[in-house]
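Board notes (copied after class):
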Amino acid sequence: MQTLLRGGRVIDPGTDLDTVADVLVRDGVVAAVGSDLAAPEGTSVVDVTGLVVGPGFVDLHSHVHTIAGQRLQAMDGVTTALDLEAGLMPIARAYADAAQEGRPLHYGFSASWGTARAQAHLGIDPDARLDSALALLGEPGWQRTSSPAELTQWLSLLERDLADGALGIGILMGYAPRTDPREFVAVAELAARANAPTYTHVRELVEADPTTPIDGSEEIVRAAAETGAAMHHCHVNSTSRQHVDRVLGLLDRSRAEGSRITVETYPYGAGSTAVGAYFLAPERLPAWGIGPSSIVLIETGERVADESRLREVRASDPGAECLVEFLDEREPADRELLHRALAYPDAIVASDAMPVLWGDGIIDSREWPLPPGGSTHPRTSGTFAKSLRLMVRESGVWTWAEAFRRCSYLPARVLDDTAPTARRKGHLGVGADADIVVLDPDRISDAATYFDSTRPSVGVRELLVGGVPVVRDGELLTDAYPGKPLRGEPG
């Protein structure tokens, strides 16, 4: 299969190329980039004059393991959707299930720290399913400090999954924030030996909980310095909230001293998680500066009325997805905090996308457009388009080249050591994977809102995944399932 994208503004963050050119795709890779390229016989020629052509977005933080969710992400410009913050276990089954079901986008997973702990502490038999993992978030049995035998057991489970192709270790420390910090160092030591990154949802900051065993962001900084591990700080905006300037300054100093710390953010003032999460206990909410009414159940749209109702929902359905409003995007000061996180040097855009839910419990659909009544977090549908709208189109803080560096190039580089095939992603050099997005620079925008969350973004005109069209002339192709696994290789 050959495709020639003719006459677009081609941006390659790998070589700093930014010029009007053609891109020839052959057999799933970029075969040539240049002016007036010849179209070999049988080539599909697509006129992209006036449009921007760049490497498809690499999302390091997507909990979308469904066709419906991946299609929304495709319309947002994503070509590779990876679940690295939470991960799945066992990793071999996670990859096998995704391959059997088919995926529009490339996919991959980290080894799940939380599930490994649950297996060691509770004797569960993990099934590599997100809904099972969400249900565990409200289970206190895995959240305590491990005994020496339990620690040995779950470290060995993580080591097994790294050997089976996990892309690092996903650590939901924010869901077990009273654990002994020495356990976190033990995970970082394992990751350093395996030459694999960690991806951490940090525990509470000291400003929010003065009794925390260690400040969440400080914990990453210390472990990275002590062990030399590559450590990724997930969604710094939502875990730092009003204290993001202090946290970013801390990370700045650590990076300047040589630590291998990367950071991600997304452009929303509300997060999403399971309602049974530790930090959503009624007595914990004041530390966030919020109350029960800041929590909205995604599947039903119910705004939690009071502390009594919150306790009831946490007890009856701890895995229920909810929105958590941690910043008010209507307030200029809160909007500015979000912008500063996005503008932070080398901050990676990542979505924290969640699956689409329907009222009858179905969490997947191959219908397109999606059946009515579906709900998710709008970041599933619009993270990348919203980031481009805010930071390129409206504020001009990023150039288009900088946008592709943060959405495509930098996230792929996080994976270079643990998954050498990632070196072919995030750029448009000859021989690169033909994961390409073509977008309208004047129209690219999110369309989803918190309460109309499955509206696809607008402005993505073409999307090639491994050279196969998934979006053509702005329309999703419903028979396209070219996604392939991105797997780690033991270090």
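Comment from the instructor: The chain has a mean pLDDT of 94. The CA atoms of residues 356 and 376 lie 5 Å apart.
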